[in-house]
Design goal:
Strands 3-4-2-1-5-6 form a six-stranded parallel sheet. It is globular. It is of the alpha/beta class.
Length: about 190
């Protein structure tokens, strides 16, 4: 029997905290030695640029949605560069093969989500909902969201619970509590 699969979403807001991105990538790379992990990137400053552009010129909701997914691809390139042993994939069919190689898979989700087109085209569906969809589609055993901090008023987006597969356990871990990641992986 192969190891269970965990989807870990790494929030793009980590970039705004000195050293956080490096610490998170190092920890994810180290726990991947004992776990099969698919990383879903947040949007970070790339999605913020889309939000700013949308506010400035007023994009159609679908246009903003697809641009935000492309922003996740860009952050995925950053994560692939920073997580030891990571490989970027943009097709659902490539995930199993790359996991079998023992690699951390970082998913560039725009092509897959464009094809599946399962999320509402609104800012209410963020990378949290993308990660929930991916976890379900890959039949993951758990979902972990790594966020910039622990004092989040709304730790997930408003579409998240409708996308998360029924009964799938998930944890929200602030980057200041990374010591909780190994326990969350074994729950």
């Amino acid at each position: 029997m192969s190891q269970p699969l965990t989807v870990i979403k790494i929030g793009g807001g980590l970039i705004s905290i000195a050293g956080a991105l490096g610490r998170v990538c190092e920890v994810v790379g180290s726990v991947a030695r004992q776990h099969r992990i698919v990383v879903v990137p947040g949007g970070g400053p790339f999605a913020d640029a889309v939000r700013d552009f949308d506010r400035s010129v007023g994009l159609a909701p679908g246009t903003a949605h697809w641009m935000a997914l492309l922003a996740m691809d860009q952050y995925g390139l950053v994560l692939t560069d920073r997580i030891p042993g990571a490989v970027l994939v943009d097709e659902a069919g490539d995930v199993a093969e790359r996991l079998a190689d023992g690699r951390v898979v970082v998913l560039a989700p725009s092509r897959w989500l464009r094809s599946a087109d399962v999320l509402p085209r609104t800012w209410d569906a963020t990378s949290d909902s993308v990660a929930a969809f991916v976890a379900g589609a890959l039949d993951a055993t758990r979902l972990i969201l790594i966020k910039p901090g622990t004092a989040l008023r709304e730790p997930v987006d408003s579409c998240f619970t409708s996308v998360l597969p029924y009964g799938m356990p998930y944890a929200v871990i602030g980057c200041d509590r990374l010591e909780e990641l190994p326990r969350a992986l074994s729950d």
